[in-house]
Design brief:
Helix content is 57%, strand content 8%. By secondary structure, the protein is an alpha+beta fold. The chain has a four-stranded antiparallel β-sheet with strand order 2-3-1-4. Strand 2 and strand 3 form a beta hairpin.
């Protein structure tokens, strides 16, 4: 594979444009237009190295000047390049062309898999935090004062809150808490649940399996205490705390690998990595 002799993607693209006699494209003039034959294929790549709209314009102009390429679209905000080309050019040929210009191309055909996984991870964090707050707020306003009465100076208020919990209104109160904490657990911890179940099916008891079993035990205990004659404390707040904590911690400690790291990483697939991949969704179009 040819090495880059120009010191970076921008220098390489400028040199390629000069060699091909391509005028420096002007940024901000709108998308390039081109006629794409119906027989041409479209491939999308995830790349690293594009930093500005000028880089996009240079890459699009240089790629469009290649034989067999009818149109190219690059977006530095999403680090993607889409190329319309004829059958004579394979994905490996296109990858080599992009590499010649100093760009690091993500391996594999599913260019958007990791990006979409990151987006879903951020959404799970939002669900865990927002639903967790919706569970904890009623606890702070109603349940905690009745459990730690010595922290509150007004015994009349505490007695009033206790009367609410002893009435039929408490049923609706606990239904909302059960629904919020249950949805937060299923949505935010979906990948953890999948991996835990997969591990148990293979006869492996992992920390994730222990976490899932523990949450289910607390949720079940709380449900019995809230809706049956079982005399116990309702701990949906512990479910919310655990789900939010594990989700936020996992989001910040399990960041997806960079394109450079994935380009050099081994491609062996394990059962655990396959389980992780099941939670990802690949996009199929990459233009602007």
């Amino acid at each position: 594979m040819p090495s880059n002799q120009h010191g970076g993607p921008r220098r390489a693209l400028e040199a390629a444009a000069a060699d091909r006699g391509i005028a420096d494209p002007v940024s901000g003039t709108g998308p390039r237009t081109a006629t794409v034959p119906a027989s041409h294929d479209h491939d999308t790549f995830e790349v690293s190295g594009l930093e500005t709209t000028r880089d996009e314009s240079l890459l699009q102009a240089v790629l469009a000047d290649h034989n067999g390429i009818s149109s190219a679209s690059a977006t530095h905000r999403t680090d993607t390049v889409g190329i319309h080309h004829d059958d004579a050019l394979s994905r490996d040929d296109l990858r080599d062309i992009l590499t010649e210009y100093g760009l690091v191309v993500a391996p594999g055909d599913d260019a958007f898999t990791n990006r979409r996984a990151s987006q879903f991870a951020s959404a799970r964090v939002a669900v865990a935090v927002l639903f967790g707050l919706m569970v904890v707020t009623p606890y702070i306003g109603v349940l905690y004062p009745t459990r730690v009465e010595w922290l509150f100076y007004d015994p009349v208020t505490v007695a009033y809150l206790q009367s609410i919990l002893d009435s039929h209104v408490a049923t609706h109160f606990f239904v909302n808490l059960a629904a919020l904490s249950g949805v937060a657990f299923l949505v935010a911890c979906g990948p953890i649940i999948q991996r835990a179940v997969a591990g148990i099916k293979r006869g492996r008891v992992t920390r994730e399996a222990g976490f899932v079993v523990g949450i289910c035990a607390v949720f079940g205990y709380s449900t019995l205490a809230a809706f049956t004659g079982f005399d116990g404390a309702v701990h949906y707040d512990l479910v919310a705390y655990a789900v939010a904590g594990v989700t936020v911690w996992g989001h910040h400690t399990d960041e997806p690998a960079s394109i450079e790291q994935r380009a050099t990483a081994p491609t062996a697939v394990t059962d655990e990595s396959a389980a992780r991949d099941d939670d990802r969704v690949a996009l199929t179009d990459g233009g602007q």
